[in-house]
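Dear support,

I submitted the protein below through the web form. The confirmation email said the job was done, but the results page showed an empty box. After a refresh the structure appeared. I'm attaching both so you can tell me whether what I see now is the final result or a partial one.
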Amino acid sequence: FYCCVMRSLLCLAGVLCVVEAFKDAPLVPTEFTAYIIQNKFNQNGRGVNHTCGGTYYSSHSQMKIRADCAGVGMISNNMSIPSPLGSMLQSSVIDFDKNVNVVKTWTNAFDPPTCFQGEAGWLPPPQPTFLRDVGAVWAGFEDTAVNGLCERWTFILRELDEHTVFTFYFDQALQFVRFDFVSLFGPQGQVGVKNQFYNIVTGNSTLLSADIFKYTACPASEAQRGRNSSAPGLVLPHSFL
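What the results page shows now:
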């Protein structure tokens, strides 16, 4: 009897997996804001291991993303202990229409920030059918600590890096709650990033004011330096998001 029951359960699970694998990917929000906690790891000991928390704004209608982050030990690596001297506040605005990313960084809240300016270099705010358009495949379920049972959708974008794999997470209400990526051969080596969203607010094109995405370009000298180095900003594939 036990064997028959187990065989039946396995058959049901197999049918479920086949059905799930052929369904359409969920729609993603085009206008949203949320709290975010990011964990970034690099097994090679490069100085990119960190945890930071803050707010995230994404607007498809304005083609802009903003992320504000407070991090401790953001320049730490596998061989060091996080230090207040490595802490920082960052605010990054990406303007995809102008292909500009401006990052302001405060290592001391009482001092003027440093400024980085480079190219956008990241996923633009998505349209609703983004996962379907890029051919994302269903990657099964995962019982997560924050959102419970989630379904995962995975894809690779050659436009960014053919060795970068993205996974989007959706809870049981099919709300977008998290996305991770793993870069195998990027400038920082083997990097894994987890981006967990909390208290997501979605809406139409009126949800996010244009004032949220206002930015001032960096001085020419710093903008030039930004084009020749890896960006420290929160929303770049080689640093944050």
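Response: this is the final, complete result; the empty box was a page-load delay. The chain has a mean pLDDT of 78.
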